[in-house]
Amino acid sequence: MDEGPYRNPSLAVDALALRDGPRGSQVLLITRRFPPWEGRLAFPGGFVEMGEDPENAVLRELIEETGVEGSNPELFAVRGSPNRDPRKHIVSIFYLVRVDSDAIPEAGDDASHAEWIDLNILEAEQVAGDHFSIIEELRK
């Protein structure tokens, strides 16, 4: 497919997997292995491949980065500020994804670690990019 003379943003997806924990809601997060935001927490996600439906991409990225299988992606939010990522202009679609609440995540691909974390203890400086704004929305 010829993209012609147009310069367009890249498209990414992020998976929001939640479960009930002993102290309230927990969210499945990864620790980023690479820059930008190396060592910070983020939602499992990545770029949509050419010819791939974003709903399939979010389920693929969830498995690649956490080993957890998801289903029924449901649109939650879109972030697209041109300066949200230092690499280039990236628009991200955030999907709520159903997962087995007993799933034990195992880091893979771009993640150095993956775990369930209590939603109410996360602080902005722990989290990559604009993902903390999504955490704040999930807390409501």
Write the layout of secondary structure elements.
Blueprint: E1 10-16, E2 18-21, E3 24-32, E4 41-42, E5 45-47, H1 54-66, E6 70-79, E7 90-99, E8 111-118, H2 131-139
Parallel strand pairs: 1-7
Antiparallel strand pairs: 1-5, 2-3, 3-4, 3-8, 6-7
Properties at a glance:
140 residues, alpha+beta, Nucleoside Triphosphate Pyrophosphohydrolase, four-stranded mixed sheet, four-stranded antiparallel sheet, 2 helices, 16% helix
Structure in words:
This protein is of the alpha+beta class. It has a single domain (10-139), classed as Nucleoside Triphosphate Pyrophosphohydrolase (Alpha-Beta Complex), CATH 3.90.79. The protein contains 2 helices and 8 strands; from the N terminus they run E-E-E-E-E-H-E-E-E-H. It has helices spanning 54-66, 131-139; strands spanning 10-16, 18-21, 24-32, 41-42, 45-47, 70-79, 90-99, 111-118. The strands form 2 sheets. Strands 5-1-7-6 form a 4-stranded mixed beta sheet, covered by helices on one side. Strands 2, 3, 4 and 8 form a 4-stranded antiparallel beta sheet that branches. The longest helix is centred in the middle third of the chain and has 13 residues, at 54-66. The protein starts with 9 loop residues before the first strand and ends with a helix. The mean pLDDT is 95.
